[in-house]
UniProtKB/TrEMBL annotation, chain A:
It is found in: Membrane. The chain crosses the membrane at residues 21-43, 58-77, 89-112, 118-138, 150-171, 191-215, 227-252, 258-282, 337-357, 369-390. Pfam families: BPD_transp_1 (PF00528). The keyword Transmembrane helix applies. SUPFAM superfamilies: MetI-like. This is ABC transmembrane type-1 domain-containing protein.
From TrEMBL, chain B:
GO terms for molecular function: ATP binding; ATP hydrolysis activity. Belongs to the ABC transporter superfamily. This is ABC transporter domain-containing protein. InterPro entries: AAA+_ATPase (IPR003593), ABC_transporter-like_ATP-bd (IPR003439), ABC_transporter-like_CS (IPR017871), CBS_dom (IPR000644), CBS_dom_sf (IPR046342), P-loop_NTPase (IPR027417).
Amino acid sequence: MSLLDALPTPRIRWEGQHPNVVLISLSLVMLCAFWTVDVVSLAPNRIVMGTGYGALEAFGWPGVVLITLLLSSIGLFACQPTLPHYRALLTVVVGLMALMPVGLIASGLLLIDPELPQARLGIGTAYWVVLFVLMLCLVEIRLRLNLTRLWPTLLLTGVALVWWLCAALWLDNLALVQEFRARDRQFLTAVGQHIRLVSIAVGVSVVLGLLLAMLMRRYARLQKGAFTLLNFLQTIPSLALFGLLLAPLAWLAAKVPFLAQLGVSGIGTTPALIALIAYSLLPMVRNTYIALEEVSPDTLEAAKGMGMRAGQRFWQVRLPLALPVLLEGVRITTVQAIGLTAVAALIGAGGLGTFIFQGLGQAAMDMVLLGALPILIMALVVDAGLGALAEALRPGGH
Amino acid sequence: MIELSHVSKRFDTEIAVDDISLRVPKGKFCALVGTSGCGKSTTLRMINRLIEHSGGEIILDGQAIEAYDPVKLRRRIGYVIQHTGLFPHWRVARNIGLVPRLLKWPAAEVQARVEELMGLLGLPVGEFGHKYPHQLSGGQAQRVGVARALAADPDILLMDEPFGALDPITREKLQDELAKLQARMQKTVLFVTHDMDEALKLADHLVVMRDGRIVQQGTPLALLQHPADPFVESLLGGLERGLKQAALTRVRDHMTSMGPTLPAQSRIPADFSLRQALSMMLRDHSDRLTVVDQHDVPIGELTLRRIIKEAQFDRGSSRE
Ligand SMILES: Nc1ncnc2c1ncn2[C@@H]1O[C@H](COP(=O)(O)OP(=O)(O)OP(=O)(O)O)[C@@H](O)[C@H]1O
Ligand SMILES: [Mg+2]
């Protein structure tokens, strides 16, 4: 899920002129995908599976030559990786990402019969492969150029804006756009529900996690039991956990009318939140506990030796020093919760999962995408944002 | 004044400190020397109550330490920690100002004190005040550690291997600066080290520990002259003992009246040590040196015969 972490984070030293094998291979993968696999597909209506089209049919000769040149230039620049070449690579990669929706517009013009305005343009496998591999390239280039996480985030935001603009103005035929147009209200509600579920679950587990971690530090015996329980919870498949909660909560709601009035029931938001919190607690508690324990004993001894009281030591020394690792826990928890919340749709909690499961039921892949893409984007944004925040909060701003 | 009488500390079954008694009079510098794990740090940490002692009595300024509130006690004792223990998330100036702030000094006074101390320790505020500890060299970090310990002007200073992790040159420089500071400030210092030369150079009173017990204590010279057992003797450098003794004695105290004035390279300033004088004689294959004052004016003569004859050195006059 955390794409920006797909490659190891340790900063790589400047290594002179050895060809960058990673980028060369990635460039070859993209060329292969571009030439051999379907770029787009076209379907006369929503349910019928579309027909696939290769690059030549979709873009025509000029387009194919241009894109082939751009894709090979990645490999060529990578043969002699100097600083200016890495900068050029960054430009090419980001440029390609921004060009992709333009390609879709072009193929729409080439392929769609003006007589058939109902036709739906689907994004083909090659498109997804190239997009994914370009992101990997971005990670690699970020490491080589020693950029902070903020840079790719900003660049990707720019790319996303271009996509959005094209989709809103010129891509009426794109199946994804049509799915969205057909239920834009519903979509916004779902996004809202999704964000609400995730924020409540993460918010509660941050507070509970901090409390639990602090209790564990005080009572060593609690530590083993709590970790065993949380580890166990984490192994239950999410759907099973939702199911397990159904019966007891339904029973509770039937027996205690007050709880029912509060909205507790066997299905819906309550069991979803309980399950989400149960899953979120382990990464949260584990990271908080480790973060608090990891603070250098020398520093803490110094704090005590200088005459700081227990509260002062905790708030002024232990907590601030633990913050980056603690935020790492929040990041992992949030990304995980964003994904899990999709499953919550199955028990009627709403959220973007609704589209995924409805789409699966109707075999409408574009509707699945309408649910899955925003989840992926949300996860990426949270991942990058919290990662950058943790980086900025390193002791001494380093 | 720090006074320990029959103090012990046991951790579960292990006895870390075993029935030690020592006294550091006000304004004196006491060095605690011994091999790793012999209980030096434990002794220090019992004094500021980071560890509670399990037997005996520790008296500070006439009062048993149990009578003090531990937090207030720690704020009046300067503590320099083995690995600096600076707060990595605070800038240098904030690190140094910690204890005054804990004592609720007005902000302006804290600021003034921090600047004063940084000047005293050769860390220009403009250059270092805004740095974080990880941006400092080892020597600079140790200076900050010392400055932090001195911030609230405590009478008592506990220093746990403050120069342990430094290269020999930086180490020696900081030792010299500490000696100068101590001559000016006259703190009551308990200083832990396992470097005998450092201890000999700085201490008024030397305590040798082994396995939690005190093996011998006294002035550096007394220990050099009469080591109690082979352990102390080897710690003091075995065969090098004579030279270490010479290092504690000033040329000034052994020179005779003027002889013939020798060429420039055979001149030695009067406040150099006899060890340095011996080294120069070895280097130049000569048995005499001309002693000069700080303006390079000859004031006497030093001969090898005299050094060897009067080997019963007493304490140099430069530090009493
Ligand atoms: N908190 C503790 N719990 C149990 N044993 C301890 C504790 N602190 C110290 N000890 C033991 O007490 C003994 C003395 O330790 P201490 O840290 O005082 O040694 P030291 O002389 O300062 O050594 P070094 O020169 O390596 O710093 C050691 O054997 C150590 O294992
Ligand atoms: Mg120690």
